């Protein structure tokens, strides 16, 4: 007896050409794990899957088991998040989120809070003012690091535990992207580190704790948001060896 079809709610992260008109779709599902499945005809503009399984979309899919990847037999669009595809500025801000999920989320490793958090950030990025796009993306990435278990230490020294954000006599904090985060002056000598501004680290710590609604109301200017995004990007490279091309574009495109 064959295995039954599997129903999933999914956020589309990436589509890769399989044949002339077929695609392999990478998606995040409700339990917070990542899956891949085949969508036949999804690259044909006239095929219903073309719109229902587009990037940033939230959809309900029915997956039929096969020898290899499951094959989608039905798809219903729940939320399109169309501005994230049609608006180049919103697309630039949102693309690193999908990119990071593709590289950091794992198959068969559920992270229950990850799906609703991702659905929420896509909703916010679709409708928010442009000035808060980058702070929202930075806040999401910092929360992603925490959920997946590789959050950097932003407020205390990774060696001695000294608090670094309060009563710091200097405007700089030493930071190790390889060894786990912030360092006090005395402990920094035994680590490969760089100097970060106290202002950037304070905002990174604050954004990691705020809700997305609170981030929209926070007075985080674009320069500060870019410095926090640089921190996130460097942390991914140092901790996981992951380089996000979409983040390189965001930080260098000149759109903001």
UniProtKB/TrEMBL annotation:
UniProt GO cellular component terms: bacterial nucleoid
InterPro entries listed in its UniProt record: ARFGAP/RecO (IPR037278), DNA_rep/recomb_RecO_N (IPR022572), NA-bd_OB-fold (IPR012340), RecO (IPR003717), RecO_C (IPR042242)
GO biological process annotation, one example: double-strand break repair
Keyword DNA damage: yes
Protein name (record): DNA repair protein RecO
Matching Pfam families: RecO_C (PF02565), RecO_N (PF11967)
Its biological purpose: Involved in DNA repair and RecF pathway recombination.
The species this protein was found in: Cryptobacterium curtum (strain ATCC 700683 / DSM 15641 / CCUG 43107 / 12-3)
Entry keyword DNA repair: yes
Superkingdom to which the source organism belongs: Bacteria
Alphabetic keyword roster: DNA damage, DNA recombination, DNA repair
UniProt family annotation: Belongs to the RecO family.
Domain spans labelled DNA replication/recombination mediator RecO N-terminal: 7-78
Family annotation (HAMAP family): RecO
